[in-house]
Design brief:
Length: about 350
């Protein structure tokens, strides 16, 4: 059956507006058989809304598999025909936008290595002028929200109305648990800046490994993300790119069943009354905390005056060590983590130093 233009649009629209939106497919399209079998096994789970596959792969070093190129686009077209799943592909140049659209790709995405580069984002945006296609924008590899927001603005100014965000974590030097540090607070800040904009999480590129995919996806759902993009492969260990983080379509289905799906809100009066009461208590405590911190800063300023009159340095390491050690000991007893207390005390200390600095140099 031929799908008409309006029919096609409504299928893509339905997927785009579905919550949670689940996108899956291989890191890279490798062969026609691999793309089609992945799509069929994903479709069979009944839990996936859109098929992803990398056609052009931006690789960190030359000599790695750089994607099958435009020759893989008809495979995606065929996979869509067989399964009804709309498709999405990463684009980084004007030519790639053109090729993807020629072969009927339904949703385009801008990759993390492209979002960092305003020249590339602008080139993609220029190629999108006059076209009606939804675009997903991954966060840049470096933790710079202005670049992420800038990319949204460039694509939006090109006339694209359906724009969504993909949080895939940020590069960091050295070994951590994650391939790309999630820095959840940045995604939360982006949500605050772009209210109502679709934002999904990509735990595959955050984790870089399978064993922590589920807990990362759960965290995203707990933080009210609108969906997930998770890489899947029919033979993950032998994938041509990102082998360590890919899972089979069947494992994906299991994982999606294991996730506890949460709602942002429920329509229950008792729930809201209980919540309001607790929030009232929190507001009250926050007020008191602010008052106390303000008092503490006042005392720090007084100390600053004494130091100024006696020509003593602001920072006295031994005193600071004593405060930190005491706080950490106390934290354990109060059920507060050492990490939190250290961060909190550091922030208080920096503010005290700034205040004393002002007193001493005014
Ligand atoms: C990908 O999705 O396969 C990819 C290259 O991701 P990112 O741009 O997040 O590195
Ligand atoms: Mn990948």
């Amino acid at each position: 059956m031929e799908t008409t233009q309006t029919n096609k649009e409504s299928i893509v629209n339905a997927a785009w507006n579905k919550r949670p939106l689940i996108i899956s497919g291989p890191c890279s399209a490798e062969t026609e058989e691999q793309v089609i079998e992945t799509a069929q096994r994903l479709a069979k789970t009944g839990k996936v809304d859109m098929l992803r596959a990398g056609i052009w792969k931006p690789r960190t070093k030359p000599g790695m598999f750089e994607g099958i190129g435009a020759k893989g686009l008809p495979w995606l077209q065929q996979a869509k025909k067989l399964t009804g799943l709309p498709t999405t592909v990463e684009v980084a140049t004007g030519k790639q936008v053109e090729d993807a659209l020629t072969f009927d790709v339904d949703v385009l995405w801008v990759g993390a290595r492209t979002t960092v580069n305003p020249f590339s984002v602008q080139e993609v945006a220029d190629a999108l002028r006059g076209v009606k296609v939804p675009v997903l924008i991954k966060n840049p590899i470096n933790p710079d929200l202005e670049l992420w927001q800038g990319a949204v603005e460039r694509i939006s100014r090109a006339g694209i109305n359906d724009i969504g965000l993909i949080h895939r974590g940020f590069s960091s030097y050295g070994n951590t648990e994650f391939r790309n540090a999630p820095m959840w607070h940045l995604a939360i800040e982006m949500k605050r800046r772009m209210p109502g904009m679709l934002i999904i999480n990509d735990p595959s590129h955050i984790c870089g490994r399978r064993d922590i995919l589920l807990s990362t996806a759960q965290k995203a759902i707990d933080l009210d993300f609108d969906g997930l993009m998770i890489e899947s492969h029919i033979d993950p260990d032998n994938a041509w790119s990102d082998a360590k983080q890919q899972i089979t379509p069947e494992r994906l289905a299991e994982m999606l069943d294991e996730i506890i799906w949460r709602r942002e809100d429920v329509q229950s009066e008792t729930f809201h009354l209980a919540l309001d009461k607790l929030r009232e208590q929190i507001n009250h405590i926050d007020d008191e905390l602010m008052q106390l911190i303000s008092q503490r800063m006042g005392i720090a300023e007084k100390i600053g005056e004494y130091k100024k009159n006696n020509n003593v340095t602001i920072l006295q390491s031994s005193r600071w060590n004593e405060i930190i050690e005491k706080s950490i000991k106390k934290a354990g007893k109060l059920n507060l983590s050492e990490e939190f207390v250290t961060k909190y005390m550091d922030a208080i200390h920096m503010e005290s130093i700034n205040r004393q600095n002002r007193v001493m140099n005014d």
